[in-house]
Amino acid sequence: MDYRQIPPIFVAAAPGLDFLNSVATPVDEEVDWISDGAGLLAWLEQAGIVSRSAIAAVRARSTAAELDTVAARARELREWFRAYVQKRKGRSLVAKDLRELEPLNQLLERDEQYGQIVADVADGVVSFELRANRRWKSAESLLLPIAELLARLVCEEDFAHVKACEGPRCTLMFADHTRGHARRWCSMAICGNRAKVAAHRARLKEQKNG
Ligand SMILES: [Zn+2]
């Protein structure tokens, strides 16, 4: 199914997992929101990870083929990281889990971030703010904010509460930040309702048979 027909899903409560959820089956067919370069740019903007002006700059400087190549690399990174998370979700990370993150560290090494002091005016009062910026040398630079999201997930999220949705055909993952950690579904709209309908049908069938 064409990703342009349906908005991307941001239900993970953790941006690194939202990135894994950039391919999903929200209804019947699989949708991959980063299946090409244009999709990757749109997803990064909708996720609020790359500013509109940076997206425009990268787009102006890159060919469609270059952007498609980066999207393919982003999908590779996504599936590599999915395997990493799936293997470890449900338990806190331990020291040896760092070893397999070497490819991610190599990517992070290439980042060109820099800080900049900017003035912010609110109600006539000026305050200075240290803002993080990044040099966007080529289309490939788009992988760096993604690498940062994945690194943050590993460093800041307790993997004990990283879960896969219980929907039988659902592939969505999320960080369960609820009190009591009882979250079971990606979202009520996608899978929660589906489960309710299935339970209701089962009850009706039982009543009929009984
Ligand atoms: Zn689900």
Automatic annotation (TrEMBL):
<dbReference type="InterPro" id="IPR010852">
    <property type="entry name" value="ABATE"/>
</dbReference>
<dbReference type="InterPro" id="IPR021005">
    <property type="entry name" value="Znf_CGNR"/>
</dbReference>
<protein>
    <recommendedName>
        <fullName>Zinc finger CGNR domain-containing protein</fullName>
    </recommendedName>
</protein>
<dbReference type="InterPro" id="IPR023286">
    <property type="entry name" value="ABATE_dom_sf"/>
</dbReference>
<dbReference type="Pfam" id="PF11706">
    <property type="entry name" value="zf-CGNR"/>
</dbReference>
<feature type="domain" description="Zinc finger CGNR">
    <location>
        <begin position="162"/>
        <end position="203"/>
    </location>
</feature>
<dbReference type="Pfam" id="PF07336">
    <property type="entry name" value="ABATE"/>
</dbReference>
